[in-house]
């Protein structure tokens, strides 16, 4: 294990621990999205609005691919968190080995098959004809990078489950810095490098992800991190049937949530594409800002889920409830603090991506005023779902998401489009998000999520000591660096 100072998430002030643990996650999200925004600025300014539309369409598919295995990663994070909270380090390492083997196999399968279907997927989304070719060139290379993206994402999530959020952040930051430097070189053909256009951005992602992943693995090996599996631990990479069963049983519903979100993104993008390149470009620019707005809620939800999982493993239910309350409060404070300036300063914000005074520029400002408020409500659902999933309760959050996205958002946008036009798409965001918040609050208050279990090997079925002995490695939580973690994706 690392010798650096550590603090368990099962003790100490809830608010302080949650905030300090979420800061590295938030910082990683910010760094990742800044990289995506810088990439979008290069593309929008030098390659044109059709290229910007191309990346918006291609990244909707990439988000779907990430979301399709998100549940398995989240399930492994929860299992690791519960095991660490219960002081069962051997169990945490078993989960790590089985999960890693799964992610390696599935990512290679996707990489090998995805490139062949890139054009068909983009065409099925209704990608505008002038954006189809560059989107295909970008997406084919991204498919090759999927194993690296999956590996980085999984390893980051596993480390957070053990309470270590600083390590993933540091190497994500390395990837971002390298990518920001390499992007324009490969896109514009600077120096001796060929001009690859939009595909250059994808090649930059592949190269920088490989370098950052290798550096992080070497660092874990050098520090003998509790989750590092070396040559003596190769047997842990053999699939444990019971762990895999739990990962699938709990991970599939959680993965379906992300799949439904990504499919809803694709459906909304398809609706927006009907209004032409100008509206699609406006929506793509708004997505850049919305990425930042939802970051606090996503970071707090990830931190709250890890903290709740460790406290469930330790049997500290009062801390689980306090984590939920504190997480919701932080969501309103931090998300609200971002929404106001992005409305008041929207002319300057959208000028980074679009030409001021253009139809796309004015459309972006209009839709932003309508839809950006929805992230306050959606953030509450994110946080509460993260807490209840930490016990193994995964079905009801899935149902809530199905209702809010596919029972309200997509039908609302479709059915009211003849009357409201593009505004039907924009208004569908706050309406569906408000419903999801109310349903999540009702389930948290009256649902039976506290009785859920992660499986037969749930640490709560074992005799868990009230305190972890001093000789047992305890969960590690960041407390020193107020710097903020996650995988590198271009938006």
From TrEMBL:
Keyword Transmembrane helix: yes
PANTHER family: MULTIDRUG RESISTANCE PROTEIN YPNP-RELATED
An annotated Gene Ontology molecular function: antiporter activity
Membrane topology category: Multi-pass membrane protein
Subcellular location(s) per record: Cell inner membrane
Coiled coil spans: none
Keyword Transmembrane: yes
UniProt keyword terms in alphabetical order: Cell membrane, Membrane, Transmembrane, Transmembrane helix, Transport
Transmembrane segments: 60-83, 95-117, 137-159, 171-190, 196-220, 247-269, 289-308, 328-350, 370-387, 394-412, 424-444
InterPro entries according to UniProt: MATE_fam, MdtK-like, Membrane_Transporter-Flippase
Main location: membrane
GO terms for cellular component: plasma membrane
Stated name of the protein: MATE family efflux transporter
Region of interest (Disordered), ranges: 464-491
């Amino acid at each position: 294990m690392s010798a650096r100072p550590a603090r368990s998430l099962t003790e100490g002030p809830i608010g302080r621990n949650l905030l300090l643990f979420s800061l590295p996650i938030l910082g990683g999200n910010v760094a990742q999205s800044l990289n995506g925004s810088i990439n979008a600025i290069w593309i929008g300014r030098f390659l044109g609005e059709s290229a910007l539309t191309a990346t918006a369409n291609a990244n909707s598919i990439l988000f779907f691919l990430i979301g399709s295995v998100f549940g398995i990663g989240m399930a492994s994070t929860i299992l690791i968190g519960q095991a660490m909270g219960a002081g069962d380090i051997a169990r945490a390492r078993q989960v790590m080995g089985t999960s890693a083997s799964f992610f390696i196999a599935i990512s290679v399968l996707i990489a090998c098959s995805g490139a062949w279907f890139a054009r068909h997927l983009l065409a099925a989304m209704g990608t505008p004809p002038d954006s189809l070719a560059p989107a295909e060139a970008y997406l084919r290379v991204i498919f090759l990078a999927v194993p690296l993206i999956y590996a980085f994402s999984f390893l980051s999530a596993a480390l957070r489950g053990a309470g270590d959020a600083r390590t993933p952040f540091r190497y994500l930051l390395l990837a971002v810095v390298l990518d920001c430097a390499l992007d324009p070189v490969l896109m514009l053909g600077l120096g001796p490098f060929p001009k690859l256009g939009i595909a250059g951005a994808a090649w930059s992602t592949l190269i920088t992800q490989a370098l950052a992943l290798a550096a992080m693995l070497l660092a874990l090996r050098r520090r003998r991190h509790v989750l590092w599996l070396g040559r003596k631990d190769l047997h842990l990479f053999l699939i444990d049937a019971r762990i895999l069963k739990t990962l699938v049983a709990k991970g599939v519903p959680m993965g379906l949530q992300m799949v439904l979100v990504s499919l809803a993104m694709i459906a909304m993008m398809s609706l927006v594409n009907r209004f032409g390149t100008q509206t699609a470009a406006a929506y793509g620019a708004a997505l850049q800002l919305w990425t930042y707005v939802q970051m606090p809620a996503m970071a707090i939800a990830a931190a709250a889920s890890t903290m709740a999982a460790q406290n469930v493993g330790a049997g500290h239910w009062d801390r689980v409830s306090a984590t939920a309350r504190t997480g919701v409060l932080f969501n309103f404070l931090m998300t609200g603090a971002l929404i106001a300036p992005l409305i008041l300063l929207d002319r300057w914000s959208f000028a980074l991506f679009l030409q001021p005074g253009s139809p796309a520029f004015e459309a972006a400002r209009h839709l932003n005023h309508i839809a950006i408020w929805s992230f306050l409500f959606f953030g509450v659902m994110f946080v509460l779902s993260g807490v209840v999933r930490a016990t193994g309760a995964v079905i009801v959050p899935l149902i809530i998401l199905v209702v809010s996205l596919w029972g309200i958002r997509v039908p609302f946008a479709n059915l009211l489009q003849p009357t409201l036009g593009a505004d039907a798409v924009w208004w569908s965001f706050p309406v569906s998000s408000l419903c999801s918040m109310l349903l999540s609050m009702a389930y948290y208050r009256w649902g039976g999520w506290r009785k859920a279990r992660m499986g037969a090997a749930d640490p709560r079925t074992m005799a868990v000591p009230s305190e972890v002995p001093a000789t047992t490695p305890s969960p590690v939580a960041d407390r020193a660096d107020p710097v903020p973690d996650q995988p590198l994706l271009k938006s």
